[in-house]
């Protein structure tokens, strides 16, 4: 497998990206085109802040569309490594850390969101967890020092 060009992602994550791409193409692109058209009709565009704002938003939307198309094109949907006893992409893993229990969803990089406890398999913690089994202890360097995680539960 070509790890440089392949982006691993869960089925749910890929569907969210496809939905966002569809929204940008079907809803946002036509809206912004109309805003630009309306701003042009106001007259001199050289000092028209609405026109400038709409053009900036159009640039962002076009960039995001290109980015999403590339991610979707190179994405490989994965729901683990075939062994439900090992941590892999798509699983939820519950760990014990310093008198605390946390559950993380291991996902591909494009869908990582630490605030939602979705961590990339490429992150320091994610890469340390992938391939481990129930009861394994892993040591991860964190800003606060070394943390020891004990895997308590693996769910797919």
Describe the structure in your own words:
The protein has 156 residues and is an alpha/beta fold. It folds into two domains: 7-77, Orthogonal Bundle (Helix Hairpins), CATH 1.10.287.180; 92-155, Roll (Chitinase A, domain 3). It contains three helices and seven strands. It has helices at 11-40, 49-74, 124-129; strands at residues 7-9, 75-77, 92-97, 100-107, 118-120, 137-142, 145-155. Strands 5-4-3-7-6 form a five-stranded mixed β-sheet. The chain has a two-stranded parallel ribbon with strand order 1-2. α1 (11-40) packs antiparallel against α2 (49-74). The mean pLDDT is 90.
What order do the helices and strands come in, and which of them pair?
Elements: E1 7-9, H1 11-40, H2 49-74, E2 75-77, E3 92-97, E4 100-107, E5 118-120, H3 124-129, E6 137-142, E7 145-155
Parallel strand pairs: 1-2, 4-5
Antiparallel strand pairs: 3-4, 3-7, 6-7
Helix pairs in contact: 1-2
Task: Offer a few descriptive terms.
7 strands; alpha/beta; five-stranded mixed sheet; two-stranded parallel ribbon; 156 residues; Chitinase A, domain 3; 3 helices; 2 domains; Helix Hairpins; elongated
